[in-house]
Amino acid sequence: MSRGRTLWIAGLLLALLVAGVGSWYASAHPDGLEWSAEQTGFDDTAQDSVTAGSPLADYTVDGAEGRLPGSVAGVIGVVAVLAVAGTLAWVVRRRDTPAPVGD
Amino acid sequence: MLPTVVERPRRTVADLRCERGRSQLQTMCNKVAVVHVPDGFLDAPTSVATGVLAAGTVALALRKARAELDERTAPLAGLTAAFVFAAQMINFPVAAGTSGHLIGAVLLAVLVGPWTAVLCMTVVLMVQALLFADGGVLAIGTNVTLMGVVAVGLGYGVFRLLRAALPRTRSGVLTATFVAAFLSVPAAAMTFVGLFVVGGSDVPLGPVVAAMGGIHLLIGLGEAAITVAVLGAVLAVRPDLVHGAAHLRSATALASRRPEPAGAAR
């Protein structure tokens, strides 16, 4: 197995681990933008997203609480981003360079 | 004897808001609270304007990214985007009662190239807005402008300037990355403030500048630390895959094997 593939698989596992397990330990405090909005009084201008009814809204599954739904949502997100961004990059890539032989 | 003082758990404003059942920012009710710009912070004309700017930049990036992507780097681009999505889920505590999360603009730009970074960041933000209701749908253009255009553009610009001034070593690359990643966060935050001046609600601006600037300077330190840690790890195992370290490999590649095709690093 080439080192490129090893790095790629290690990176994917790390991303899945961060999204699936690391997110359990994420801070639930308001982030910089939300905190600033609260401090200065424009937080009430925020509107619910039109996708707020999405089954994955708020990084959970059907609004369920707990760790497992968060993990499932995170893993789905990683796979979705990988599929869309990976496909896009593969389609956009240049084809003029010869494929590296042997690596 | 009954206790006279009832200890109440410490609650954030967001917790209270969720309990009152009038959550404005959906994400605040959950453990994971990435929080990008929601709909409503900026008025419709400002949102449309940032949408046009974002769409134009993405269209340009679709053409320019071609030079950055080949059979080796395209899979890395998809993976890095997925990693940025995952890392953005991890809000880290900043000051008391506040959190921040990685943007990942400089990480993407240095690792896979700035135009590819624009595309990857756009995919991340669209998946977050459409699937996870994080960041408004009308505000996608605003969020792409802040994190995909400003953070990537300014961050990569700073990186290039510092890289040229610093020694052509791994430490030089990482130092340039640290500063660029740090500055990309307050730059995005201050751009939001600029948009807020044009199309935000009518609150005093001084406190908004102070709050947004101050807290995002702190968040920038976290951004820089995470970016350098990840980039350092990739540089250690596969420096040849790092877009922003092409000048390092050209020196070693010349000594060990045939040089890369001219212009491959652009």
Write up what this structure looks like.
Chain A: It is found in: Cell membrane. Chain A: InterPro entries: PDGLE_dom. Chain A: Pfam families: PDGLE. Chain A: It comes from Blastococcus mobilis. Chain A: Residues 5-94 form the PDGLE domain. The complex is a heterodimer of chains A (103) and B (266). Chain A contains 3 helices and no strands. Chain A is mainly alpha-helical. Chain A has a domain at 1-23 and 65-98. The relative contact order of chain A is 0.12. Chain B is mainly α and 266 residues long. Chain B has a single domain, classed as Arp2/3 complex 21 kDa subunit ARPC3. In chain B, 64% of the residues lie in helices and 2% in strands. Chain B has helices at residues 13-19, 44-64, 73-88, 105-112, 114-131, 140-165, 170-199, 205-237, 246-256; strands at residues 92-93, 99-100. Chain B has a two-stranded antiparallel ribbon. In chain B, a hairpin with a 5-residue loop joins strand 1 (92-93) and strand 2 (99-100). The radius of gyration of chain B is 20 Å and the shape is globular. At the A-B interface, helix 1, helix 2 and helix 3 of A face helix 1, helix 3, strand 1, strand 2 and helix 5 of B.
Q: Give the largest interface pair and sizes.
A: A-B, 72 and 95 residues
Helix-and-strand structural type of chain B? mainly alpha
- The ordered string of helix (H) and strand (E) elements of chain A is HHH
CATH architecture of chain B: Orthogonal Bundle
